[in-house]
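User: Before I run my own analysis I want an independent prediction to cross-check against. Here's the chain; please return only the C-alpha cells and, at the end, one sentence I can use as a sanity check.
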Amino acid sequence: MQPSNEPIGLPETPPPPPQSSLPQKARTMAIASIVLGVVGLCVSLTFGALSVGMGKVGGIGILCGIPLSIAGFVFGYLAMKDPAQKAIAVMGVIISCIALIFLILIAIIGLAMFEFAVINQSL
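Assistant: C-alpha cells:
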C-alpha cells in the first residue's frame, strides 16, 4: 500500500464555478436604475414644480424627467432577472415610477393652468 499525499478525513473541495459578467452587469443596471429614478424625481420636483408655479406647462422638467424615469424603469426591470440584485432593482423601479407619476401630474396641472390662463385672457 502506497502512502497518499492527501490529509485523512478532509473531503476534496470542488473548484469554484466560472464567473460570468451577468451578476456585475445586473448590479450596475440596478444601481443605475436607482440613480436615474432619483435624478428623475429631483428633476420632476424642482423644474416641474417651479414651472407650474410660474404658470408654465413644465417644459424642461417634463422633457428631462420623463426619459430619465423611463430609463430607470427599464434598467430596473432588466436587473430584476438576477435574484441577488432583485431588491435593489425593485427600489429603482419604484422610485422611477414615482418620478414618472409626479411628472404626469405636473404635466396635467400645468396644462390645466395653461388652459385656465388662455380662457381668462380671451374673456
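Sanity check: The two ends are 109 Å apart (CA to CA).
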